[in-house]
C-alpha cells in the first residue's frame, strides 16, 4: 500500500460516514441537517453557549464556513444567534428547545455510526488506529 492509497481510504471513510449519517437522519425524519452540522450541534450540546470564534476554534473550521452552517441551523430553528450583551460585535450561539429535542436522535445516530465503524475492531486496535491517525502531520 502506498501513501496515496492511505489518503484515498481516509477520504472514502469520510464519504461513507456522511452517507451513513444522512441515511440515519432521514430514517429518524430529520430533514435539512447535513453531517457538517454535527460538530456544531455536538459543541452546543456540551456547552450552554459559544461565540462564533469559540466554535470556529473548537471544530477547526474557518469563520465563513461556520457562519453558513450556523445560519442554516438558525433558519431551521435549532440554534439561537444573538449579540453578546457585553460586546455587540460578538455573537453568542445557543440551542433552541427544538435543538435540545434533537439530542437523543443525534446521540443514537452517533452511536450507530461508531458501532458500524468499529464493528470489527478490538479495543487495542482502536487505540492503535487513533495513535496512528494522530501522527498525521497536518
Helix-strand blueprint:
Elements: H1 3-27, H2 38-46, E1 50-51, H3 52-59, H4 63-75, E2 79-83, E3 91-95, H5 97-101, H6 103-117, H7 123-134
Antiparallel strand pairs: 1-3, 2-3
Helix pairs in contact: 1-6
Which architecture of the largest domain does the CATH hierarchy give at level 2? Answer: Orthogonal Bundle
Number of strands: 3
% residues in beta strands: 5-15%
Principal-axes geometry comes out as: globular
Features:
globular; single chain; 2 domains; 138 residues; Arc Repressor Mutant, subunit A; 63% helix; 7 helices; three-stranded antiparallel sheet
Structure description:
- The chain has 138 residues and is mainly alpha-helical.
- It folds into 2 domains: 1-30 and 102-133, no CATH class; 32-98, Winged helix-like DNA-binding domain superfamily/Winged helix DNA-binding domain (Arc Repressor Mutant, subunit A, Orthogonal Bundle), CATH 1.10.10.
- It is built from 7 helices and 3 strands, in the order ααβααββααα.
- The chain has a 3-stranded antiparallel beta sheet.
- A hairpin with a 7-residue loop joins strand 2 (79-83) and strand 3 (91-95).
- The radius of gyration is 17 Å and the shape is globular.
